Amino acid sequence: MAWARVCASCCWQLAEAVLPTRTGVGAEERTPLLGPAPASQSPGPSIPRDPGTPNAGFSCPSHGFTSSDPPLGGYREVDLSAGSSSPWGPGATGASWPTAVLLADLEQDARQGECALPRAAPVGLAPLKPEASQSSSPGLTGCMGARVVAEAGTGDSGSAEPEPESCLPRCGGGSETPESRRGQPPTAPELPSVMLLNGDCPESLKKEERAAELPRENGLDEAEPGEETTGQEVIVIQDTGFSVKILAPGIEPFSLQVSPQEMVQEIHQVLMDREDTCHRTCFSLHLDGNMLDHFSELRSVEGLQEGSVLRVVEEPYTVREARIHVRHVRDLLKSLDPSDAFNGVDCNSLSFLSVFTDGDLGDSGKRKKGLEMDPIDCTPPEYILPGSRERPLCPLQPQNRDWKPLQCLKVLTMSGWNPPPGNRKMHGDLMYLFVITAEDRQVSITASTRGFYLNQSTAYHFNPKPASPRFLSHSLVELLNQISPTFKKNFAVLQKKRVQRHPFERIATPFQVYSWTAPQAEHAMDCVRAEDAYTSRLGYEEHIPGQTRDWNEELQTTRELPRKNLPERLLRERAIFKVHSDFTAAATRGAMAVIDGNVMAINPSEETKMQMFIWNNIFFSLGFDVRDHYKDFGGDVAAYVAPTNDLNGVRTYNAVDVEGLYTLGTVVVDYRGYRVTAQSIIPGILERDQEQSVIYGSIDFGKTVMSHPRYLELLERTSRPLKILRHRVLNDRDEEVELCSSVECKGIIGNDGRHYILDLLRTFPPDLNFLPVPGEALPEECTRAGFPRAHRHKLCCLRQELVDAFVEHRYLLFMKLAALQLMQQKAGRMESPSTLENGDSLSSESKPEDPPGPEAGSEEEGGGASGLAKVKELAETIASDDGTDPRSREVIRNACKAVGSISSTAFDVRFNPDIFSPGVRFPESCQEEVRDQKQLLKDAAAFLLSCQIPGLVKDCIEHAVLPMDGATLAEVMRQRGINMRYLGKVLDLVLRSPAREQLDHIYKIGIGELITRSAKHIFKTYLQGVELSGLSAAISHFLNCFLSSYPNPVAHLPADELISKKRNRRRRNRPPGAADNTAWAVMTPQELWKNICQEAKNYFDFSLECETVDQAVETYGLQKITLLREISLKTGIQILLKEYSFDSRHKPAFTEEDVLNIFPVVKHVNPKASDAFHFFQSGQAKVQQGFLKEGCELINEALNLFNNVYGAMHVEICACLRLLARLHYIMGDYAEALSNQQKAVLMSERVMGIEHPNTIQEYMHLALYCFASSQLSTALSLLYRARYLTLLVFGEDHPEMALLDNNIGLVLHGVMEYDLSLRFLENALAVSTKYHGPKSLKVALSHHLVARVYESKAEFRSALQHEKEGYTIYKTQLGEDHEKTKESSEYLKCLTQQAVALQRTMNEIYRNGSSANIPPLKFTAPSMASVLEQLNVINGILFIPLSQKDLENLKAEVARRQQLQEANRNREKAEEPMVTEPEPAGAPEDSASQPQAAKDPSSPSLQG
Questions:
Q1: % of the chain at pLDDT higher than 90
Q2: What are the pLDDT digits (tens) for 1458-1478?
Q3: Residues 6+ apart with CB under 8 A from 454
Q4: How many CB atoms lie within 10 A of CB 60?
């Protein structure tokens, strides 16, 4: 058995070759996912259709295998050079091949639809940009293909020409050959669909809006540094692309690869981002003397073909163009400056990966091949070593070398002489700029219609005449190059660095991510920033000419887009996502402006808490109880939680997505202690009274209630997925009114005729554990746990996840009951059903509920899969019985009754959200239904306590979930439907658990979360009393009281000279609640900690045993730095990056200079990419079943669709990339794994945060792939980074740390740093022993790893001792005969022999002194392969063994397929007369790629 680390593609291809059943896997298994496939799909009848691998080696219907080398070349070029720089990154690189899946499976009629779409696009939407259809990257497939061909020795280069097409799936009736496609784009109506699906239309909307300000948002991105001049890597669309020559003034002509679906505008964008043309913004493109229209598609340009020459012609400026130009130059100058990311503006965020990789991943390790065994300094800084107590903060944001900004200019700003007076306007002056060069020369510059030139004005004297020499230049950069040598030199270096950065470091994220620390930065002069702050940004958005955006219209119109087939759904989802992210950004800015007092209220005469605001077509209200609206529900406290409940409701209804039912755009912003709700405005609502507008629901919590047939019809469609019961209530005139939601939910028909629902705060049923109702007793599980407890407000409701889990649990129960009775009937001992009915209400519910308890709790995770399978079987038996036998109907009826189903013939559990609502009355006729509903709610409350919480704790013990900080713990709780107010209960259960020791990490995280959440509640009210001038003093004082050991910190009140004694006390437009008080200054640490303990008791029902921060740290093993991170993230504080001495008793830890900023904490709806998500899940399922290649294709397809909807950056894309990287790694393609994982790390840093637990995971995966690619020092520095972040976020004592330390120890062992290696491995052993128990297999493995290092050090006694421990565990856990036990016993023998040999040698030396005749001892330095094997084992990666015979079969199959394809190709050529002409288009790429393809297959292929 040759252990071939086979790229799994070979295995699948092998399976195809050897097992005929393969068709089954390919075709039938996929169909349910994708719908029917058109029959015309597969051109080669003899080859089993494998949808989705247009180019994946054998299974490609057109001409898969032989031709794989060219794309390999193309792939290398694209993917690792430009590809890694194509921001569509994943989508572009290696992701686009499986389009066939989609196209083949679209509905038959989709063809017309698809074609219509992209053509129509330019009108309504921005250009739909196909270019990520860089199917250029048959990435992986091509590459695997090439590898196997090489192995088989039949790589036939002759077949290269047609290849590039094989990525272009045949959509529709695949009669025409690929070649015919390349030449005549316009004749191929199917193309658009491919382009759209494959293409990265993702940002097309954003593109139009941001065209002016951003160098380049799209996949046509930078060239790779070394290859700017070829231009070809910018867009590679092999299927229909052609190249044109660009002639720009002042540089060599270069060629550019374009696609017919592109807009002319795309070429503009490319030129504005290329290093040598980036300084131009105002130009047009001419073909044969005719100007091309900006918004036309290239295919519609007459005479544009392969090799056409496009001339760049400079156009005259207008004021708008001149401003765009200045903004663009400023963006180029700031392109490496991280200040926007630290300040949290324009969706910039931080990334530090490049600091640790030194850029050697971009070329996927090609530079550092060889074993890189030149000495590496492996010693980590002291604070990373196991056992170190210090937790420095500064390494969190290491200084990036590129950030030392190269100063090109000292000042570039608008001149005070703007705007030009009338007489100068008539000379063509557009605006004036003032510049101080790096050499300290001050110059005034005129922007005129012809370009930029120096004038004779000074700061105090206006003289607009041209200076001499005037240096007239069309671009500002050219002018500055002439007057400042420093500018010329530094600007060139800056642009070189800019295009070398990975695009993922600079693309904007969809939602703003804020950093809680930042270094001290100088505040530089910046005209664009200043202008944005005071002009365009407040009233209206720049991109839309002449008006503010009508957010409501945009949000609702995107929802109304058609969604019949996949392209339509993609377009719709992309539009929805884009508008949502824009709306969230605008709402956040508005909310901050409202709290900072920059917006006039619409009711300015009322007191500040009552005020409401409109800004930028968004309505803002504050989280206070206005007009006693929430008097019965908890007043201000209820008013504070209502917006988040409402947001959850909006999220839910949006997810159900019923046509014709509209919700408002909603964003909830917490800023400076205030909660602001931002909503889009229903057309016409401001002109009329709320009483008149509401035609459904109640405006006074159920006194007056209205209903409306259309609303009932729309809401009825949501009732099943949301489990809401249609019910009747009484209004104030005692009439029955029918509702299908809670009474608070209001229906308003806007002036636009749309049906809106709002106030969705009680979409889900109430949580009875926190709602004591007189006269209602809760089930015993609840009373035992001390419920019901009065909460601060009466709006506590169950989470949607809980409702779903509860219903699923009931369904299992229903099936068990029914099956049990049916079996009894069948056995003939039919007992009278009355026994079941009598005991029904509680006995048959709570009792059966207990045994399935824990499993039911965890079944969401997939543990319940088998249970569900059984249920499905039962369901079938019951269904088959159903009609025939009246007795079985009786059985169903009983089971329905027992589980509280509302129907007696089928299982249907729903909740009435108005039960227990104060003020809601139900008609007499419904009393029985109401009683059942009350019981159901009590059962749900009990289910949360008896199933979900124990299920969570059980998952934590089994390490099925591994939270690392407060946010990940909250996430894990919410997935199971457990609200955060149960945190105290979860901690109680952890304390009482028999496995308390193994839950230590959960307990610490939970306590930390409890403390910081309690502190956040206090901080919120504390901040409301602080006026703006005292903000930094107040926040630093609070942090001192919270975290510093200094016993009596004194608050610094704002400096006296600014506070006039006779100040007017009655300023009208004060920020809400800002009484000028300084009550905050008297807080002491003792008082704050007393309040925290009290808050923890009141809110979470948990008693903290600590009176100071030091006691808390001591008692619970917390870290102050972790508490600081948690409180900062929760409240939006940003602090200075420096080392804080928390434990000093002589001076406070924080001064007011340490508080840099306070950011908003934003909650919003996250629109989902549904199709992409289904593909992703199917891909995951396939991978779990072992079908790696199919899984890989589906996940690639998902990646494409995600890119299409979300753009380049998103959490879900990150998960996709991580999985793809892992698959490529398992398949042996290390370079591709590295490239995908690098993107995943960058994206995780940018979208989730640089020290988010997810980012730590990504760093570990990347380190493994680096090691496999023999980049040892990089692997180590990545692992050290991951360890540092883990220490900062949690500390050393976490189960994840064992894995990390094993990884570090193994790598160090590999580079022969034995002593250092032992420190990490022994720490890992200790942590594993604690969290997995001394008898677990993980511990046995840990012992083995330690033994290996001792063996390498020749300390055989210690090695033997550890290996014996491991052997004992294997023997007891797995038995004598298990291979692990045998391996261990072999290794023990080997160690014993070595120990004996060593002892002999020592004895010899003792006896004979130095003249002893010593046989050489064999010390084993570990081989890289053996280290990698162990690394794979601990990271849970398995490889598939392939025998020699399998390889032979594989080669035979390759040869057979090739002959088949030859035959097919010849037949096609005969049919298609016009195939010869367009050939040259593909030729240059093909020839270029030959050498790479030739030398590559050897590298990661089949290493024996």
A1: 52
A2: 677 677 666 655 554 433 333
A3: 443, 444, 445, 446, 466, 467, 469, 470, 471, 479, 483
A4: 27
Backbone angles phi, psi at 1026, to 5 degrees: -105, 130
Using CA atoms, how far apart are residues 576 and 559, in angstroms rounded to an integer?
Answer: 7
Please list, in sequence order, all residues whose beta carbon lies within 8 angstroms of the beta carbon of residue 1431, skipping any fewer than 6 positions away: 1264, 1267, 1268, 1303, 1306, 1307
CA distances from 1158 to 517, 532, 590 (A): 11, 20, 15
CB 455 within 8 A of CB 464: yes
User: What are the structure tokens assigned to 396, written together?
Assistant: 């969190």
Q: Decide if 415 contacts 433 (C-beta within 8 A).
A: yes
Residues present in the chain in total: 1504
Enumerate the β-bridge partners of residue 255.
245
Where does the pLDDT of residue 873 fall: very low under 50, low under 70, confident under 90, or very high at 90 and above?
low
The residues near 810 (Cβ < 8 Å, ≥ 6 apart) are 899, 900, 901, 907, 909
H/E run at residue 312: strand 309-314
Band the pLDDT of 869: cuts 50, 70, 90.
Answer: low
Rounded (to 5) percent helix, strand, coil in the chain: 55, 10, 40
**Residues sharing a CB contact under 8 Å with residue 280, sequence separation 6 or more, in sequence order:** 248, 271, 272, 312, 314, 474, 475
- CA 443/CA 466 separation, integer angstroms: 12
Would the pLDDT of 291 be above 60? yes
- Each residue of 690-717: pLDDT tens digit? 667 899 998 887 788 999 999 999 999 9
Helices (H), 596-731: 635-656, 690-693, 709-722
The DSSP line for 520-568 is -------HHHHHHHHTHHHH--TTSTTS---HHHHHHHHHHS--SSHHH
pLDDT, tens digit, 9 for 90 and up, residues 1338-1393: 999 999 999 999 999 889 999 999 999 999 999 999 999 999 999 999 999 999 99
At a CB cut-off of 8 Å and minimum separation 6, what does 1045 contact?
1108, 1109, 1110, 1142, 1143, 1144, 1145, 1149
DSSP strands (E only) in 399-536: 409-414, 429-437, 442-448, 451-455, 517-518
β pairing state of 242-247 and 254-258: antiparallel
User: Do the beta carbons of residue 372 and residue 1272 sit within 8 Å?
Assistant: yes
Q: Do the Cβ atoms of 548 and 179 come closer than 8 Å?
A: no
Segment holding 204, helix H or strand E: helix 204-210
> Peptide bond preceding 788: is omega within 30 degrees of 0, i.e. cis?
yes
Helix (H) or strand (E) holding 313, with range, is: strand 309-314
Report, as an integer, the average pLDDT of 854-876.
49
User: What distance in Å separates the CA atoms of residue 1046 and residue 1041, rounded to the nearest whole number?
Assistant: 8
The encoded tokens of residue 1001 equal 């990490």
Q: Which of 636, 617, 620 is nearest to 628 (CA)?
A: 636
Tell whether the model's pLDDT for residue 201 goes beyond 70. no
Are the CB atoms for 205 and 99 separated by under 8 Å? Answer: no
Is-contact 1137 352, C-beta < 8 A? no
Torsion of CA 1289, 1291, 1292, 1293, to 10 degrees: -110
Residue 429: what are its φ and ψ, rounded to 5°? Answer: -75, 130
Cβ pair 421, 462 in contact under 8 A = no
What number of H helices and E strands is found in the chain?
56, 23
> What is the structure's pLDDT at 1397?
87
User: What 3-state DSSP class applies to 1339?
Assistant: helix
Rounded Cα gap, residues 217 and 507, in angstroms: 7
Say whether pLDDT at 327 is over 50.
yes
Question: Which of 24, 111, 136, 140 minimizes the C-alpha distance to 1500?
Answer: 140
Q: How far is residue 317's CA from residue 449's CA, in Å, rounded to a whole number?
A: 4
